[in-house]
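In response to reviewer comment 3 from the previous cycle, which asked for concrete evidence that the modeling workflow produces usable outputs, we include below a single protein chain processed end to end. The sequence was submitted unchanged, and the resulting structure tokens are shown without manual editing.
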Amino acid sequence: MKRIACLLLLCAFSAIVKAQDPHYSQFFASPLTLNPAFTGKFDGNFRVAGNYKNQWPAINKAFQTTSVSADFALLKNRLAFGDTWGLGITALSDKSAGGAVKFNYLSLSTAYHKSIDQDGYQQIGLGFQATYSNMLINTTQLKFEDQLTSIGFTGVTNEVFANSDLKAGYFDVNVGALYTGSTNDYNNFYAGLSIYHINRPQEKFTGANYFIEPRYTVHGGGYFPVSEAATVHVSGLYSSQAGSAEMVAGGALQLKTGEAVNVYVGGWMRMKDAIIPYVGLEFGDFRLGASYDINTSELRTASQSKGGIELSLIYIKKPADGNGLPCPKF
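The workflow returned the following structure tokens.
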């Protein structure tokens, strides 16, 4: 009976959020799914980022999202001082309903960042991203109301599908803009705007066609040292899509604990939904982050306040000649 109640609540919540894109609580650790203009904007030769989220684990396999991205700078020795041109690729997989519904995305992105001062501390960047997406629904794994009996979902459904797999695919276009600035070599601040699904792609099934609404995101953040061994990082965003919206804000304290070793401790809050404690470890060119959503919304009854665990791993190959210009770190 408990599982049935959780499933019904999940279905009701899914209807409320409509067709919201998969998203990460550690949005700052998945730059190319946040804003195409982040492509190539980092201090290093190339960057690889991996992310995993298991949302609402108390509701068995409700949502599982995995992504990996890689980006690098082009023509570094041929562009004007302070300018950056980046190229990147992203693959993302999103599974829900115990794997019955699967979304897969493959994106190519590029961005150009133009220096607007002589020192290269101030830059404005524009990014573009092209995506191919496909969705697969395995109808044999779906559960319907008419299958529900006194001992669980054991009945025979009245729904009839011509195929056991329903498929749909589309091409998508995303754009973004980003401003970054620094006052010295030890701080950085940024603000950006991104629009995903700017072309409103259409998903088509037999007897059902619908448009994917654009997702608008405004975000910003920065870091600044408070002592020789401590740096404060802050970030936040506001995002809206198809009548749904979220606001996330927070920060972390970076503590230097050894040569090329840093520890991060902090937290973020998704307004009216979850508290998100965060810990991270940076060693050499790697940065590992872990967070956990603790539900504070009405859904906490079904989720048992367990919003879900999230992991991130970023590798940035540092230049051999030392640090370059300050860049957004989250």
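The chain has a mean pLDDT of 83. We consider this sufficient to address the reviewer's concern, and the full set will be provided in the supplementary archive.
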